[in-house]
Amino acid sequence: MSPMKLLEVWVKAPFLREASILISSECLWQLHREICGNFSRNRVSLTICPEREGCKGIVSKLATIIRTSNPKDFTVLTMEGSPHCFLLHTSVLQALFLTGMGIKSRHFVLLEGIPLEIQPDAIRTARYLHLVDRIIRKCPDALDELGKISHEKTDAMEG
User: Fold this and answer.
1) Which residues neighbour 66 within 8 Å (Cβ) at sequence distance 6 or greater?
2) Smallest Cα–Cα separation from 88: which of 72, 108, 111?
3) What is the pTM of this model?
4) Where are the domains of the chain?
């Protein structure tokens, strides 16, 4: 089944009922079709671009899908380093929290064409900047890694 747009899918669509659902950023399908195809195998694939479509309605749409279709699980796949894509990870976790349904989720980011699994607790922690700051102070070599992958960090180091 081809990917469908998250905000356009009917929340009670029969194919969502007790399904494994892949939530991915739309740009991934243009840039990494093969990887997305592999991740979507045996899953209903729903895409969204929070940058274009805004964040309004994502959590409520996901929560409504959870309550009406009781999916088996969620997998989230996005680009690494995009603040808009990060929103998809937090939105799935927020919808799961709000519904209290106990549905499992797995989270992946694509870094240089390689999918990396991210613990849900890493996503939760990233929302609390004082904790991120504490982690960086205890593990400053993480900033060296950031300098290798972030143009923003590289520019800040030069400026």
Assistant:
1) 95, 96, 99, 101, 103
2) 108
3) 0.91
4) 4-119, 128-159
C-alpha span between 135 and 139 (Å, rounded):
6
Q: Which residue, chain included where needed, has tokens 């929070």?
A: 50
Cα separations (Å) of 107 from 13, 61, 143, 157? 24, 19, 22, 30
Euclidean distance between CA atoms 46 and 26, whole angstroms: 9
CA separation for the pair 76, 85 (Å, rounded): 10
Tokens, residue 126: 């990233």
Separation CA 51–CA 87 (nearest Å):
10
pLDDT along the chain (159 residues), means of 10: 92 97 95 95 95 82 97 98 93 97 97 96 96 94 88 60
Class of domain 4-119 (CATH, top level): alpha beta
Task: Note the residue count of the chain.
Answer: 159
pLDDT of the residue at 135: 95
Nearest by Cα to 61 from 75, 47, 41: 47
pLDDT at 106: 99
